[in-house]
Amino acid sequence: MESNNTYKPSSEAFSRYFAGESTQDELTQINNWANESAENQEELELLRAIWQDVGSVRIEPAEVDTNKAFANVLAKKKAHEQTVPSRSFWNAWKVAAVVLLAVSAVLMMIQEDNDVQLVAESITKVSLSDSTKVTVNEGSTLVYQKNFNTAARKVSLSGEAFFDVARNEEKPFVVQVGEVTVTVLGTSFNIKESEKSVNVAVSTGRVEVKSAFGTEILSAGEQVTVNLDEKELTTANNSTSGTEQYWFSKKLIFAGSDMSNVLEDLESTYQVRINVKNEAILNCKLQATFEDQSIDEILEIISLSQGLTVEQTNEGYILSGEGCDD
Question: Which CATH architecture has domain 115-237?
Answer without folding.
Answer: Sandwich (2.60)
